[in-house]
Amino acid sequence: MAITIKDVEKLANVATFIISQLNADDTRISEKTKVRVRKAMQKLGYHPNFIKKV
Predict the structure, then answer these.
(1) How many domains does the chain contain in total?
(2) Which residues contact residue 10 at a Cβ distance below 8 angstroms, ignoring those fewer than 6 apart?
């Protein structure tokens, strides 16, 4: 089964929006939150899908 953004959301205890903003390199996300989310991504082996549908 593929790891989804929802899995990262649960493990890092943040909203999906925060993960999306982190992937977009939003500067409004605190460094503490970035570290927590990135650790969750690494632990789960999550890789964001940057392919946009047109």
Answers:
(1) 1
(2) none
